[in-house]
Write a structure and sequence with these properties.
Helix 3 runs parallel beside helix 4 and helix 3 (37-49) packs parallel to helix 8. An 8-stranded mixed beta sheet has the order 3-2-1-4-5-6-7-8, sandwiched between helices. It is an alpha/beta fold. The chain is built from 9 helices and 8 strands. The chain binds zinc ion. Zinc ion (ZN) is lined by residues 166-167, 169-170, 231-232, 235, 237-238.
């Protein structure tokens, strides 16, 4: 149930999806995979929106070179585990949200445990090998996977839903090698914020999702495009799902 204080806190968004929508957010448990640039924006908006439980998984510690985009952290957090610093910051923002910070590596042998009973995965990773692992876990569990990625002034975001859409392996069949790439903070903020908006829309049913549509952001020429996505007929992850249906 939503308390009078919660009604007060969420009043402006409850005008969009009502008390029932807010209760659904409160009952939701979301995995945010990665607590970097995308994760900073996604976590702040999901905590502020009143998602009941946020499970944040990241293996790293805060470095000075993170601070141009990872606004969950300040100078005083350098050297501290990201999940610990993130939990402290988010608990200050909204004490009603339960934060589970796990300093773990997302890998094939750990992912299903890490996802646990979460009802949705937010991709806030910085590499496609890790994203593939999350994608496969989302399909195995039958839960949505909100994909976001940035590089330089460019970003992309889409919502994958098992049984209804293509999957990440249709879009990016082979993971490019992991490397340090250039990135500016605002693009992480935009993409991470859209991922949070998709999450809120999914749980409240407030409006259509970015299903089978890839939103591409070009921060150089200030162009945003929506490109249709089609499931790859031979995809070994979502293709199997389609055959089963
Ligand atoms: Zn696929």
């Amino acid at each position: 149930m939503i308390s009078p204080e919660e009604c007060d806190r969420y009043e402006r968004q409850m005008r969009l999806f009502g008390r029932e929508g807010q209760e659904r957010l409160k009952a939701a448990k979301v995995l945010v995979a990665g607590a970097g640039g995308l994760g900073s924006a996604a976590c702040v908006y999901l905590a502020a929106a009143g998602i009941g439980t946020l499970r944040i998984v990241d293996e790293g510690a805060v470095e000075r070179s993170n601070l141009n985009r990872q606004f969950l952290y300040g100078d005083e957090d350098i050297g501290r585990a990201k999940v610990e610093a993130a939990a402290a910051r988010l608990e200050r923002l909204n004490p009603d949200v339960r934060i589970e910070g796990l300093r773990r590596t997302i890998a094939e042998d750990t992912v299903l445990d890490l996802v646990g009973d979460c009802g949705l995965i937010v991709d806030a990773m910085d590499n496609f090998a890790g994203r593939h692992v999350l994608n496969d876990a989302a399909w195995a569990k039958g839960i949505p996977f909100i994909h976001g990625a940035v590089e330089g002034f460019y970003g992309q975001v889409t919502t994958f839903v098992p049984g209804r859409t293509a999957c990440l392996r249709c879009l990016v069949p082979v993971a490019p090698p992991r490397r340090a790439f250039p990135v500016i903070g605002p693009l992480c903020g935009i993409v991470g914020s859209i991922e949070a908006a998709e999450t809120v829309k999914y749980f409240t049913g407030a409006s259509r999702l970015l299903e089978n549509m890839l939103l591409m952001l070009d921060g150089v020429d200030c162009v945003i495009e929506e490109v249709p996505l089609r499931p790859a007929p031979d995809c070994r992850v979502c293709g199997r799902e389609r055959t089963r249906r």
